[in-house]
Write a structure and sequence with these properties.
This protein is α/β, with parallel strands linked by helices and about 525 residues long. About 30% of the residues lie in helices and about 25% in strands. The chain folds into 4 domains: about 140 residues, P-loop containing nucleotide triphosphate hydrolases (Rossmann fold, 3-Layer(aba) Sandwich); about 70 residues, no CATH class; about 190 residues, Rossmann fold, CATH 3.40.50.300; about 80 residues, no CATH class. The strands form 5 sheets. It has a 6-stranded mixed sheet with strand order 6-9-10-3-11-12, sandwiched between helices. Strand 1 and strand 2 form a beta hairpin. The protein is globular. The relative contact order is 0.11.
Length: about 525
């Protein structure tokens, strides 16, 4: 007789106002397997896992663990059953330390005093065993998203969970951190853990998953073995059509200079050094320029300085011939659009309805506000409906849906729709495809190229190597806050790009303050630093 499934969700139906998020879905997780859950944005993946974790209650269907029916009313019930979850948007207390977050809810006390030594020792042992290196005394607000994710994983392991749910775990990670996470997941499987893995990235599914279950618009499409199913077949199951994985575009026809950055320097919040150091470059009308680099090399601070979110230590920014170095964010937003890196912190007001989020930077314009200062609600709603239809933004109640209630991918699509539709000369797109499915990524890339072909300048900041190699017309590589190379994506390779990103190679002739050198010159940074000392 076959062993019972570690987890079996049978005929699960979950409804929200205006939408059936899960429509009669059955999911079966074997013991000791990595089971991927694949679906386009808003397909119901996170909702299904939230039902399993006790955050939502299904209207229909049952959950079985090891063949026995169980009732999960809340996350405490899930934890008691050995079920843990790393959420797409981390559930961490920002002002607490890593250690305090890990033990939160399962603290040991003696005489009303927290017993931290034992917990610290267990966390240290777990971090060493699984390669999840963290600083237990660092505050969450001061650490990277990759470190925050390690904290979330350690929370699960600290509670001795045997069923592990990873909801979009790689959406905010660098390529290096993704590789580390894949290795950690393989180690957990080898330990006998059972893993449910939500992702949009087909390469990741092929790398670690044993089987994959596909959802589309809340319905179950099928479960297949990963080893015998191609990425093209999986993407077809996910979106219901063939997806073009290659970016089609005509050669760029650059025009006048739209953005000119001269000797930009931006301070770091984390340490005393400057995060961006003496950066200079131009972006022309009708071209896409990408700033590539390993996360944490000054890209975030550069965008903050460019968009007005942080002041410059030094330098000058000229946009459409106008010096905007001292301009406010609103003044800059009249000339540029900005798809931010963090959609929750800088892209949306999460407790506003979708329609208000669609006009966040334009509500004061005559199109949406009367002369007496009152919002034109009818016009705002019609505008929101138009953008939702044009950019396939899906939500339960249309324009009146609260942004927080939407899936992460549809939140991202709403921001992209708003920023591209807004009148602008420069589009600053920071990780625009983060958390999007392959069909939506294809659409975003087409939108960026359409922007270019319509005569606008596009500045793309991306960590996705495939995107960096396929979308832009020029690549600028940032390393330790400096531009260390300018590359033509048609003439370079991923390997060469990687050398620039790691600081092992540079063509510094684009820096006016540095003597010109041959593009092929390789600088051994370790040797150079040793010599400096």
């Amino acid at each position: 007789m076959d062993a019972p499934y570690a987890i079996e969700m049978v005929n699960i139906t979950k409804r929200f106002p205006g939408i059936i998020a899960n429509d009669n879905i059955t999911l079966q997780l074997r013991r000791g397997e990595i089971h991927a859950l694949l679906g386009e944005n808003g397909a119901g993946k996170s909702t299904l896992m939230s039902v399993l974790f006790g955050l939502y209650q299904a209207e229909e269907g049952v959950i079985k663990k090891d063949g026995k029916e169980v009732k999960i009313n809340n996350p405490n019930d899930a934890n008691d059953l050995g079920i843990g979850m790393v959420h797409q948007h981390f559930k961490l207390v920002q002002c607490f330390t890593v250690l305090e977050n890990i033990i939160l809810g399962v603290e040991s006390t003696k005489g009303g005093v927290l017993q931290m030594d034992e917990a610290r020792a267990k966390v240290k042992a777990l971090s060493e065993k699984y390669g999840l290196h963290v600083d237990p005394d660092a505050k969450i607000e001061d650490i990277t998203v990759g470190m925050q994710q390690r904290t979330e994983i350690l929370k699960m392991l600290f509670r001795d969970n045997e069923i592990l749910i990873f909801d979009e775990p790689t959406a905010v990670l660098t390529p290096q951190e993704i590789e580390e996470l894949m290795e950690i997941m393989n180690n957990l499987r080898a330990e006998g853990k059972s893993i449910l893995f939500i992702t949009h990235k087909l390469n990741e599914i092929k790398a670690v998953a044993d089987r994959v279950t596909v959802l589309r618009r809340g319905k179950y499409i099928g479960t297949v073995d990963v080893a015998t199913t191609s990425k093209e077949e999986m993407s077809r199951m996910m979106v219901g059509r063939d997806v073009n994985m290659v970016v089609d575009k005509e050669p760029a026809k650059p025009g006048d200079v739209i953005l000119k950055v001269e000797n930009m320097t931006v301070a770091s919040k984390m340490h005393s050094n400057n995060a961006v150091k003496n950066v200079s470059f131009e972006v022309h009308k009708g071209e896409i320029v990408c700033i590539a680099g390993i996360d944490g090399n000054g890209q975030t601070e550069f965008v903050y300085g460019l968009t007005g979110m942080e002041p410059l230590v030094d330098g000058k920014i000229t946009l459409c011939g106008k010096d905007i170095t001292k301009d406010s964010i609103r003044q800059r937003s009249k000339l540029l659009s900005h798809i931010p890196e963090d959609r929750h912190k800088h892209g949306l007001v999460l407790d506003y309805p979708l329609e208000y989020n669609m006009v966040l930077q334009r509500y004061y314009q005559p199109e949406f506000t009367s002369g007496a200062g009152f919002l034109k609600r009818k016009e705002i709603r019609e505008y929101s409906e138009k953008l939702e239809a044009a950019y396939d933004v899906r939500s339960g109640q249309g324009p009146i849906t609260i942004a927080r209630a939407m899936s992460g991918g549809n939140q991202q699509k709403a921001i992209i729709a708003r920023e591209i539709d807004k009148d602008h000369q420069l589009l600053v797109a920071v990780q625009p495809t983060r958390g999007l499915d392959v069909g939506a990524i294809e659409g975003v890339h087409k939108n960026l190229i359409a922007e270019r072909d319509n005569g606008r300048a596009v500045l793309l900041i991306s960590l996705e190597l495939e995107e960096v190699m396929n979308v832009p017309d020029r690549i600028l590589v940032m390393y330790e806050g400096e531009i260390v190379g300018e590359l033509d994506p048609k003439k370079t390779t991923v390997e060469e790009l990687g050398l620039y990103m790691a600081g092992a190679k540079r063509n510094v002739d684009i820096d006016a303050n540095t003597p010109e050198v041959e593009e092929s010159e390789v600088i051994d940074t370790a040797a150079a630093r040793k010599e400096e000392k």
